Amino acid sequence: MSSNPSDHGDTPQDPLSEMLARLFGGQAGGIDPQELAKAAGLPSDPNAMAMIFQQVQAMFSAPSDGPVNWQLAKDNARRMAATGTDPSVSAQQARDVGEALHVAQMWLDPVTDFPSTAALGKAWSRAEWVEATMDSWRRLTEPVAVSISEALTNAISTQMPEEMKSMMGGASSMLANMGGAMFGIQLGQAIGALSKEVVSSTDVGLPLAEGTMALLPANVASFGEGLDIPETEIRLYLAVREAAHARLFAHAPWLAGHLFGSIESYARGIHIDISKIEDVARDIDPSNPASLQEALAGGVFQPDRTPAQDAALERLETALALVEGWVDEVTAAATSNLPSAAALREMIRRRRASGGPAEHTFASLVGLELRPRRLRDAAALWAQLREERGIEGRDAIWEHPDLMPTSKDLDDPLGFSKRRELLDASDSDVDAALRRLLEGGFDEKDNSAQAAAGTPPEAAPSADTSSDETPDGDSDADNPDGGKDGNAS
Hints:
Blueprint: H1 15-24, H2 33-39, H3 46-61, H4 70-82, H5 91-108, E1 121-123, H6 126-159, H7 162-168, H8 172-194, E2 213-215, H9 217-223, H10 231-251, H11 254-268, H12 274-283, H13 289-297, H14 307-334, H15 341-354, H16 357-366, H17 375-396, H18 407-411, H19 416-439, H20 444-452, H21 484-488
Parallel strand pairs: 1-2
Helix pairs in contact: 2-13, 3-8, 4-6, 4-8, 5-10, 6-8, 6-11, 6-12, 8-16, 10-14, 11-14, 14-17
């Protein structure tokens, strides 16, 4: 009997069907590869599927740079971004974006103490956004990706029948990278979907493309659909927000590291419950692709949070709220003469607080929600500080992370300055006392004051002259008579 696949039927077996047949044995006959791809959230287009599996096959046959194939993730993100329409940026669109960002810089000058940056304004297509931000997404997700891919690899190797292991022989590298391939494909899908929602490089509140100001004209147009607002005003308002983000991250250089550090602190404590993955794997019906979709949508790959991770996420959420609240407040002041500013401000607030479908997909994949839930509280705090301290005093708080408000300050914006004054006064007293001690200690007047305040004499430096020294300062050791003359008299 010939081994040619065409001898087994009218249509040759495709590589995916062959792989599924090997993995699931006789049960694979009921699997439709296109239905399986649809259930997993992959494109149903045969050509796109063929390209994806060519990449996966190449990854399995060659060493990768880690547990996750990031090239696969980026390629899939670009492909997802181009699904439907991803028009190239026209020369007119580039000019419009450049002019909007230039005007935005001028409007921001009177309302913030931070000067304009040297960053050039750019207009990006969705694919260009993917290219420009992919390194940041890798930094954000790599710790999560590594943990999840290792868990998947362990689960697959544990559940694989012994006869399958022997059949695979020396293909251990393929097994080791299978989990990373699955995560890379899913991550690419999430980033590609996000590329259709973001309107700028800082739209998620993070400096994903440091030193750059950019708008996505196609998404700006989609953002304005159904609004009775001229596109020029929408573009200008979004440009002011983008320029405000750029100024803040440029003049608070510690801020980006603080945000990414909070995410990394969360990621360091990730623990994937392998038993949960194994339980779900046993329940997946190979003949029913919908069961795979239910498993992926059920958060099976989502990490279990620890108290330390909850604290890290609270710090991240507070920091994001402070960033977005400051940008919201500054943008409102800069666009006060724009007729549609109030409506656009409210729309942006709701959009940032709730998140879009792609943000939810990303959150379910890596367990991170990059949303400033307390944006309104943070904006109220920055407005209060501007009234109390002026623009310069408000912006000076960004000089150091120790000066930043906390989540408790968001609970009571009006009391922030009073609490900070009490804290500063307490710190000043401690610093003054320490400085005086280092410069020579406390004098007799300080001891008298301490005694009046009830401080025990032995707790304070002593200036007693009654026992060891004579009134003129000579010690008994210097008296040849050892003090007898004094006693005789």
